[in-house]
Design a protein that fits this description.
Length: 386
Amino acid sequence: MSGQRIVCVGAGFSGAVIARKFAEAGYAVLVIDERSHIAGNCHTEVDAATNIMVHKYGPHIFHTDDKEVWDYVNGFTEFKPFVNRVKAVVGDSVYLLPINLHTINQLFGRQMSPAEAKAFVAEQSRQDIDDPQSFEDQALKFVGEKIYKTFFHGYTRKQWGVEPQALPASILKRLPVRFTYDDNYFNHMYQGIPARGYTHLVQHILDHPKIETRLETRFESLDEDARHVFYSGPIDRFFGYSLGRLAYRTLDFEEIRVEDDAGIGTAVLNYCDAEVPWTRITDHKYFAPWSLDETKGSLQFKEYSRACEAQDIPYYPIRLVSDKARLGEYAELAKGVSGTTFVGRLGTYRYLDMDVTIREALDTAQAALDALGRGEVPKPLFARIL
Ligand code: FAD
Ligand code: UDP
């Protein structure tokens, strides 16, 4: 093994998990992040005035069917059970999401059984759409016009800034539609939130004698002769945006502090009407129901989505056709960069849940360790990014 260190750019889940895997294999690792904290966009911190655990870059709920990943994170910190139950405000009414039997019965003023509701929605849906490519076609095929217009059209326009006809069907496929009264937002077997927050979890992943973590350090100004680099920053930034910028949505969070302990009464309220400028309000104390007795008042965030400019934090990759073409060109450039592997949500320009991020990080690190063991240079791109 040479004396040079492995460098992980980014101290989010991608960088931390890869660093840990290499450290455990005996390699010295340097993890850098330009921010003043670890955990990337999953960063949490306790608000001093209220004792509420705040998810600084938007609320994060861990949900997965991947038992190995679930066991992995539980090996570093205690998880508390949490079931995400989202409410949707439309006009003067409040509904339950995801679309379930309660939502359908409430919207149509009926008392349908599961079988009746299934047949009813099938009647409303567009059976002539065979292979839906766009968000809109996917919605019209599976839930029909009224449900689509009520819950998805306005919200999606606000969230993505384009007509749903221009968006890929995959965005909607993230959400289940149920003909029972189950209002669990996710279908996964395991769901929870770390009792002491995500930053505590990542801190434990990074806590290894072979790992040095250096904050407020940009890759562009790092002076280190690395054995191999795992880069979880934006792929277009790595190449100095030479082929143009990949489009993202960014978020603005308007903080609202209230003394009322009940706050909004739940963790997430979506606002589906196009006329309401925000997409949702989240009340962070409710993401830690086990500690409600220990907090004071409530701390809410109104979320607004807009186009990401150069100085903003990139949140959601948009991945329109034009972005995918540009991404393909960056992927070609990446293939020519020896000694660097592009990882994570920014390095591969994909929306990745935390469990998928960790799964890919574990697999990428293993494949790279195997390659180094054979005396080869690890691949620049591990995951399929297009
Ligand atoms: P990041 O967390 O973005 O980490 C990358 C790090 O690299 C950052 O800290 C950045 O500062 C650093 N960096 C970048 N470039 C450089 C550079 N040049 N030099 C130095 N440092 C650099 N997933 C779920 O499973 N459940 C959820 O409920 C959920 N909610 C979400 C809500 C929102 C609003 C968003 C946008 C995402 C959500 N996610 C959720 C996804 C989750 O945030 C990602 O899975 C996770 O952040 C990916 O980790 P990462 O390490 O790849 O990237
Ligand atoms: N969506 C919607 N109305 C809602 C909730 C979600 O139209 O009340 C759409 C929206 O386009 C969103 C997508 O469904 O991006 C996926 O929902 P999810 O909750 O996964 O949203 P995200 O994690 O993207 O914020």
